[in-house]
Amino acid sequence: MTQVAFIVNGKPVSVDVTGEPRLLWVIRDHLKLTGTKFGCGAGLCGACTVHIDGKAARSCQVDISQAAGKRVTTIEGLSPDSDHPLQRAWVAMQVPQCGYCQSGQIMQAAELLANNPKPSRQDIVRHMDGNLCRCGTYPHIIAAIQSVA
């Protein structure tokens, strides 16, 4: 049993884990924050995207030891009242259909806007390229990000 301490959504946490579980499963199973979704498990779809020290990361590919001492932000921590400008834009632009990928999409977009507040359409498409949406709401996703930018 190993104890790993880090900060999640601004709050210090310490979890006891066996082996080297992925951050995704610690977030979902140990911390009960279920907004971060399991998609492909190979880091290819983006459904599990969180921020680690402000940088978007696929939590299904991050060993828990890599999160030790770091700041992890999940969709629940992006805004305490779910009123982040991207979250409001997602609703206004009616982006979600099934909604499964949306937390990862929003976290990826939040990283983009934090680093580039006025991205071009091409910047948006390039940055969001690794986040998949089976419902195909890409035009709405791009429009929502553009509306915030």
UniProtKB/TrEMBL annotation:
Sorted keywords for this record are: 2Fe-2S, Iron, Iron-sulfur, Metal-binding, Oxidoreductase
Q: Which domain of life is it from?
A: Bacteria
Gene Ontology MF annotations = 2 iron, 2 sulfur cluster binding; metal ion binding; oxidoreductase activity
Q: Where is the 2Fe-2S ferredoxin-type domain?
A: 2-78
Q: Which CDD domains match?
A: fer2
> What PANTHER family does the database record attribute to this sequence?
BLR6218 PROTEIN, OXIDOREDUCTASE WITH IRON-SULFUR SUBUNIT
**This chain belongs to which protein, by name?**
Isoquinoline 1-oxidoreductase alpha subunit
State the species of origin.
Roseiarcus fermentans
